[in-house]
Design goal:
Blueprint lengths: L17 H4 L2 H7 L13 H6 L6 H12 L7 H8 L6 H5 L6 H15 L4 H14 L3 H17 L1 H7 L8 H9 L15 E2 L8 E5 L4 H5 L1 H12 L3 E5 L8 H5 L3 H15 L6 E4 L2 H8 L1 H4 L4 H9 E3 H6 L16 E5 L3 H4 L6 H7 L5 E3 L15 H4 L1 H18 L3 E3 L3 H14 L4 E3 L1 H7 L3
Parallel strand pairs: 2-3, 2-4, 4-5, 6-7, 6-8, 8-9
Antiparallel strand pairs: 1-3
This protein binds iron/sulfur cluster (2 copies).
Amino acid sequence: MSHASAVQESPATAARTAAAIFPPEANELLRSCVHCGLCLGACPTYRENGNENDSPRGRLYLMKGLADGRLTATEAVTAHLDLCLDCRACETACPSGVRYGRILESTRAMLVERKKPSWSERALRALVFKQLFTRPEALAMAAGLTRFMQRSGLRDAARAAGLVGLLPKRLRDLEAMQPEIKEEPFRANAPAVFPALGGAPKKRVAFFSGCVMDLLMGEIHRATVKVLQAHGVEVLSVHGQQCCGALAFHAGEAETGRKLARRNLEIFRGLGVDAIVNNSAGCGAALKEYGEILHGDAEAAKFSALARDVSEVLAALEPVVALKPPDASKELKVCYDEPCHLLHAQKISAQPKTVMQRIPGVAWVALPDAEFCCGAAGIYNITQPEMSRAVLARKIDALKATGADVVLTGNPGCILQIRQGCKAAGLPCEVLHPMELFARAIG
Ligand code: SF4
Ligand code: SF4
C-alpha cells in the first residue's frame, strides 16, 4: 500500500508481540478490516488532504503495524493517529463492522504509556485530566472564575489590552473557545425532582448533566428538563455525578476514564428509574459503553442498558402541553447538523428529527453533508487547530448555502465550534441545542 513508505519499520522492537503492547480484544478487532476502502469517502481528514495515512484504512494499517511490532511509535506514525478526529464516520461506512473507535482508543491508551510526550503536552494532560475532570470542585472553581471574568468585563478588557496575546498558543486557543456563560450552573440550584406535566408521569428518568455542560451551559439542561416535563416525564436531578470520562477515553487516558465511570455507577445505583437521560452526544456514547469498558461489572452493564439520549425518550412519547411557534414574528428556517457521536457512535438520527418536527412555525432545510464532523471532536480544535479549521470551514460553507436562521446540533462541543465558525464568517445563524428550540415552543 502506498502509505507504507511514510512510516518507519521497527528496528529491535520488531519482535515485540502484539499481546505485550495491545489489549487482546483490540487485536481481534483489528483483524476485521478487509482493506476494501469503502470508508475512505466518509473520512473528513482524508477528504481534506487525500493522504492514505490519514484515512481509516491507512490508520488501521498503522495501528496493526504497532500492534504486531512491525512499526515503532515514531512521530511519523503517531502524527497520523493524532490527526484522527475519532468521529467514527468510518464505522458507519464500513460493511465489515470494523469497530474503529475501540481500536483507536486502545491504541491511544497504549501510546500514552509508551510515548514520551513533550513537557507542554504532559503539563496540559495533567491539568485537564488529573486536576480538572476528576475534581468537580476544581472544575467548578475554573468555571466560576470564567463566569466572573466574563460578567465583570475583565475578560473583554484583557482581550482589548492584548494580554491574551501574551499567553502560550494552546492557552490562547483555549481562551478563544470559552462559551459565553448565559445562566447559572444547572445542578447547584436544581430541585431533586422536576415533576411531570399533565398528570401521572409516563416515565421517570434520572438526568445525567455531566461536568462542563452543567457548569457552563445550564440553559441547555434547563431547556431539556422543561421539554421532558412537557412530554409527561418526571426528571430526577442527581447530585455527586462526575464527568462521563469521554474526553479521557478519547485521549488515551483510560485509567482516568474508568475512575470517572466507576464514580458515576455508584451515584446512579438503585434509583429505580426507566432511563438515565443525557443531552450530549459525546457523553451519551461514553455512557452506553461503560458496560463494555468495565467488562464483567454487572452495575456498568445495567447503567449502559439504561443510558438514553433525550431524543430516544421523547420520540416514543407525545407532548402533553400545547406548542407554539418559537418565533412569533416569522417562520424560522432551521437545519439540523448530526453530531458524530450521536449518528456514528450511537446510530441515532431519526429520533431527534421526529421530535423536532413537532415544533410548529418551522421550515426545515437540509444541511449538505450534515453527517460530516464539524472539527470540534473534544479538544481536537486545540490539539489540531489547522485540520479543525479546515473541517469547520466546509461546515460553515454548507451552512451558508442553506440560508438557515437556526442550526441545531445535540453536542456542546459542536455548538461551540459551529458558533465560533459562524461568528468568524459573519454568518447571522443562531446555533442551538435542539432542546433549546423546543423549549421556546412550550408556552
Ligand atoms: S475499515 Fe471497513 S470499510 Fe474501511 S477498509 Fe477496513 S473493512 Fe473496508
Ligand atoms: S474516526 Fe473519523 S477522522 Fe478518524 S479515520 Fe474514522 S472517519 Fe477518519
